[in-house]
Design goal:
The protein is built from 16 helices and no strands. The chain is mostly helical.
């Protein structure tokens, strides 16, 4: 009888171990599933994380951060997000995206707490993820090479996230061979005619250069940071102030673009100008998350010769800064920015100098490419930010722990 019980117990444990290994594979290969379908990506990542936590349960599920300051900004953001949602022009649409944003944040938080206590699990996931990303960029490169003569949109959007994953592989493993995938990335970006990843790379490099020089000149650091924010504010205000402000037929036909169309194309200038004018009508709480293309006149055809049959807001404002400002209002916008900033700042304080460069580059890339990219509320894009950030944070905290123990 005891031998039967022992056999059953051993068999059950073996099945659980296999299921755990399968969960690591699902998480690590999630971006390979993204090449097939964005829904497959979500199913793979969520199933993997949930299965892993069910089979090897964490001590507790966390609904708040361990840092008081982050909690303050998190709950402040939740409050203003709730106000915006209840004030939404389409409540059902806003409540759904608000819920999954909160779930992404909490999932990333719990993943971080879980895998930082299980370094062997983290190592397995990272190993599978590295193999997956290398295969992904190779597949994308070969696809564009084979279809060189025919313009295709396939993988163009996905390349936005694959690019940053390729560029931070060496963060997780400081190995020379992990620079090789960049050889396949560069022609893929050129052949796909992807502008958002290039803007993201430039923003990431600029912030890294800024950090490098301010780090070298300690006494100049506070002045430099203040100068950067002042320059960014003045530059943004100047350009935003030069966007179109009148949208009647006569004004559109006689418009003279103040911002060079080589810098910002005519359609984006109309989208951003229209969005900012609408923002003025509801500045505190906005129109509600993911509702910008349902605002009055947003689906009206612009009617300018350079925009053809395009509308004022085709699906979203194509700029996360303007999109969040328009949909969550100034209160939701600033509470979100402060929340993201202080989450990263707490990670930054634990990082060594090398890790700081990667963390800055990752954020510069993600938010920089989001200035001309698809909607912030796109699930796989939004979820990727909190998933990758949790992996980066885990690597930083584990490195610090190893350093202390050595």
């Amino acid at each position: 009888m005891d031998s039967c019980y022992d056999y059953y117990k051993k068999n059950t444990l073996n099945k659980m171990r296999l299921a755990l290994q399968f969960s690591y594979i699902l998480i690590g290969l999630s971006y390979s599933f993204l090449l097939l379908n964005k829904i497959y990506f979500g199913i793979s990542l969520l199933t993997g994380i949930i299965l892993m936590m069910i089979l090897n349960r964490p001590n507790k599920i966390c609904f708040h951060f361990s840092n008081t300051k982050i909690n303050y900004f998190f709950y402040t953001f939740l409050f203003f997000l709730s106000c915006s949602t209840f004030n939404s022009i389409i409540f059902a649409r806003s409540i759904s995206v608000a819920i999954y944003l909160i779930l992404f944040i909490l999932l990333g938080l719990n993943l971080f707490f879980y895998i930082q206590k299980k370094p062997e699990v983290f190592e397995k996931i990272i190993n599978i993820l590295i193999i997956s990303i290398i295969l992904n960029i190779l597949i994308i490169f070969l696809y564009y090479l084979i279809n060189f003569e025919t313009y295709t949109l396939r993988f163009k959007g996905i390349l936005n996230i694959i690019t940053i994953l390729v560029l931070i592989l060496t963060f997780f493993r400081n190995k020379l061979y992990l620079y090789l995938p960049i050889i396949f990335l560069i022609p893929s970006l050129i052949l796909s005619d992807s502008n958002a990843p290039l803007l993201g790379i430039l923003c990431g490099l600029f912030l890294n250069l800024f950090f490098f020089f301010t780090n070298k000149i300690q006494f100049f650091k506070k002045t430099a940071v203040f100068s950067l924010f002042t320059f960014f504010f003045v530059f943004s205000f100047y350009n935003l102030n030069n966007l179109p402000t009148k949208f009647d037929e006569e004004s559109i036909n006689n418009i003279e673009f103040k911002i060079p169309t080589s810098l910002i194309d005519p359609h984006r200038q109309f989208i951003w100008g229209f969005s900012l004018e609408k923002f003025k009508n509801n500045p505190l709480f906005g129109y509600g998350a993911d509702t910008s293309n349902f605002i009055d006149d947003s689906q009206k055809i612009i009617g300018h010769q350079a925009t053809g049959d395009m509308t004022f807001i085709p699906s979203h404002p194509h700029n996360f800064f303007i999109e969040i400002l328009l949909e969550l209002g100034i209160l939701g916008f600033f509470s979100f920015i402060l929340f993201i900033f202080f989450v990263n700042y707490e990670i930054f304080k634990k990082a060594n100098n090398r890790e700081k460069f990667y963390l800055i580059f990752f954020n510069g890339y993600f938010w920089g490419s989001s200035l001309v990219n698809f909607s912030f509320w796109l699930g796989w894009w939004q979820g990727s930010y909190f998933f990758i950030l949790s992996l980066i944070a885990t690597q930083i905290f584990l490195t610090k722990k190893d350093y202390k123990n050595s």
